[in-house]
Amino acid sequence: MLNLDTHIFLYAVAGELTPAEAKLLRREQWSISAIVLWEIAKLAQLGRIEIDLDDVQVARALRAVHVWPITAEIAKRSTRLDIKGDPADELIAATSLVENVPLATRDRALRRSQLVPIA
Fold this sequence. Notes:
By secondary structure, this protein is α/β, with parallel strands linked by helices. The protein is 53% helix and 10% strand. The chain has helices spanning 6-14, 19-27, 34-45, 56-63, 72-78, 87-99, 108-112, and strands at residues 2-4, 30-33, 66-68, 103-104. Helix 5 (72-78) crosses helix 6.
C-alpha cells in the first residue's frame, strides 16, 4: 500500500504521472490521509485546480482508495517531524509514519526527511 500526497493523487486522476510514478502506483494499492480530501476541496475553492470531489474521475478514484483518519497519534507525530512544511503535508507525512506506509510525493522537503518512509 502507498500513501499518496494530494498532488500525486491529483496527477494520478488527471493522468499526469511520470512513467516511474505510474509504474509504482500500478503495483500498489492507494491510500490517502483524510486531510487530502479537504485540501482538494480548498484548492478548488481557491481556483488553483479545476476539479472537485463530485467529479466522476475523482469520485471513482476515491472509491478505490483507503482513507486514513487523522488520529490523535498522527496529530502528535506531525509535530515531531524532521521537516517543516504546510500543516496538511505534515499530517500526510505523519500518516505514513504512524501507519508504516510509504509516501508517494514529489515534494522536495518531504523527500528530504530521514523519518518519513518515501516510496
